[in-house]
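Hi F.,

I've been meaning to write this up properly since the lab meeting, where we talked about keeping a consistent format for the predictions we share between groups. The idea is simple: the sequence comes first, exactly as it goes in, then the C-alpha cells exactly as they come out, then a line or two of notes. No screenshots and no reformatting. I'm using this chain as the first example so we have something concrete to point to.
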Amino acid sequence: MQNYIPPYTISNKMLELVSEISEKIGKINSHRELESRPHLRRNNRIQSIHSSLKIEANSLSLSEVRDVINGHLVLGDQKEIQEVKNAYEAYEHIPDINPFSIIDLKKIHGIMTYRTVNESGVFRKGDEGVFSGDTCIFVAPPPQMVDNLMNDLFTWMKKSEGVVHPLILSAVFHYEFVFIHPFADGNGRMARLWHTAILYRWRNVFEYIPLESQIEKYQAEYYDAIAQCHVNGNSDNFIEFMLEMIWQILDEVIAQIRKSDSETSEYVKRILDVMEYDIPYTSNAIMQALGLRSKETLRKNYINPAIELGVIRMTLPDKPNSKNQRYVKQ
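Output, unedited:
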C-alpha cells in the first residue's frame, strides 16, 4: 500500500518568501549575530515559551514565566507553572532532537506534558477535536488511525529531506500534525516546537528565533489558515501563512540586534562579561570583578544602564537601596 503524500502546491509567493527568508538568515549567520549575544538568545527563548503556552490559555505573564525559568518562587496555578518548566526543558533539547524520529517525538511530548496530562509520551486513545476558543475547527481522525497516519507523515518527511526545502517541509509537517492531532493534549505546543526543530536542522539560528511570539500575535489568522486548509484539502494557505510569520519575525530579530548594538555600551558589555546567568551578585562582588573603587561609577555607568536594557535585574526591585539587594544576569 502506497504511503500518504501530503497535498500541497508550491506557489510563486512561497518561492519568493523562501528566497527572502534565506537571505535574511544568511545576514544573521554571516555575522554570528545571535551567538555573540547570549542575553538576546535567552530572552527570545523565554518569549517563545511564554507565547506558545499563552496560545494554549496559560495565564502566566512573561515576567512570571521568566521567574519560573530562573528558579524563583511564583504564586500561581501549579499546573501552569509545571507547563513552563516542562516547555523550558523540552526547548533545551532542540539541538539533540531528530525531527524525523517518532521515538524522539514521543519522548519530547513526555517532557512537554510531564505531570500535567494522563496520556504523556503516547498517542491518544480517544477522539479529539481542534478548538479556537470555544469554536471547534474540526474533529480529528479517530484514534485507531493515528499510528498509520503518523508513520506515513514521518516516512514522507524522511523521503523529502534534501528534496523539499526545510521552510516548506516544516510548514507541511506543522499542518499535517495539527490535522492528525496525535496526542490527547499538547499538540499545538509540540507542533510549534517541532517546526523549530526541523528549521534548526537547516540553520541552527532558528533555535533562538521566537517564531511562537509571531504566531501568538496572529493567533486568529493562525487558526483561520488551518481551517481554510481543511476546507481546501491541502496545506497551501498554511504554508504561505507560516512563511510570512518567519519573514516578519526575522525583521524583528534583525531590529533587535541593531538596537542591542546601538544601546549596549562598553560598560554594559563588561558587566555582562563578569556575571554568570542566574547567580545573584552583590554590588561589592561586581565592583571587585570589574576592578572598580567607586559605587557611584558602578551604579551610573554599569548597573543602571544594564537594568534599563533588561539584561540584568534586581532581586528586590521594590527596595533598590536595600543592603540585601542582589543583581542577576538574565
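Notes:
The mean pLDDT is 93.
Residues 236-263 form the longest helix (28 residues).

If this format works for you, I'll send the rest the same way.

G.
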